[in-house]
Amino acid sequence: MQALYKTLENYISKNKYPFHMPGHKGNTAFLPPVPLLQLDLTELDTLDNLHSPNSCIKATQQRIADFYGADFSFLLVNGSTAGIIAAIITTCNENTTIAVDRNCHKSVYNGLILSGAKPVYFLPKIQPPPLTDVTIVTSPTYLGNVLNIAEIAEKSQLLIVDEAHGAHFAFNKIFPKSALTQGADIVVHSFHKTLPAFSQSAALHVKGDKLDIFKLKQALSMVQTSSPSYMIMSTTDYMLDLLQNDNRYFERYVENLLKLRASLKDRIIPTDDISKILLNIPKNENWLDKSQLAFEMITEKYTLAMTSVADKQEGFELLQKEVDKIKFEPPLFSESEIFLPKVIFTPKEFFEKSKKICKASLAESVGKISAEFLAPVPPGIPILAPGEEITENIAKIYPNCKIAVLQEM
Question: Per residue in 185-198, pLDDT tens?
Fold first, then answer.
């Protein structure tokens, strides 16, 4: 078994075009002229402090807030995960009920453990959020579909939106509207997912006066490293400044994207966010082995190609050429089923219990209580969370999958 560096070195040598995250796609045109190693600095007197900014970092956060239309924006160097957890522990405690979109990332569950909030799960595509103290939803989804945020905001006392995959929305009107323009109180963006930024770069935005900003700052300091990467923060600042001051980058990208989608025609499954190229091409090892492309996700139902403003024209042309080679009939597409869980213990209740666990297949665990997440990565959305009963519907999805289940308490 090879260790990490050698594995990466071997992978890079294959020279596959990346239709996956991070959104910089290895395109050096979006890197600053200063060498990256020289940007890997620390909190010197003149370089500000992420956890108590009063100069250059404060100015960058204010510029981000102005661009996205937020009242406050906070740089994140531990990804959207840190922002989601901070948002939950700021707005929730053990007396709080929180309506949780079952399509949420597993970081939401970690926030529930830390806050002690009592979740009420719902399926936003088929039902409105229940009346609770706080609501959290994911929009856009991993596959690029959005919710009616304005409608959900109207029915929520305080709304948190995981818009990790929508940081690019504000750059061109062809994309869906951001949740920040539709009544959300807290919105979290992952810059590295759909913009030319390094992994872990993200932001949390606040709009309105429902939030205790001082408490939020404390929460962010709790969930983020005390040694934030100046390389991540500074290159994010450089990238955003570049894109905000020259709309030709996104104009070219959208023009090329529309041409690509038109050329792929019947191979594309419609999505609300056109940057997600969802192809009705199932897993095909023979094609993948010979392909010069690397995709974000490949399943028995579809192939997901993620694009960004950093994609090159030759990449789009290569994708069209490779898809044209496909001769087999596409399968019927249906979104992965997400079920409302049978909750036996809340995330915090289960986390705090003393317990004995054992590993078993889902098929032989129906009726038992899961002791861990069943959350395929990507995208990290739990089909099953700790403290929830394993039902027949769930067991049918991955019958042979081994999972930790509760043996006794």
Answer: 999 999 999 999 99
Tell me which DSSP letter residue 395 carries: H
Question: Would you say how long the chain is, in residues?
Answer: 409
Contacts of 194 (CB under 8 A, 6+ apart): 23, 165, 166, 167, 168, 275, 306, 308
What is the DSSP pairing of strand 17-19 with strand 293-295? Answer: parallel
* Longest CA–CA separation in the chain, Å: 62
What's residue 305's pLDDT? 96
Dihedral class, residue 79 (left if φ above 0, else alpha if ψ from -120 to 50, else beta): left
- Look at residues 91, 80, 366 and name the one whose alpha carbon lies nearest to residue 204: 80
Query: Is the pLDDT assigned to residue 333 strictly greater than 60?
Result: no
Between CA 340 and CA 338 the distance in angstroms is 7
Per-residue pLDDT, 332: 59
pLDDT at position 286 over 90: no
Quote the tokens at residue 214: 């001082």
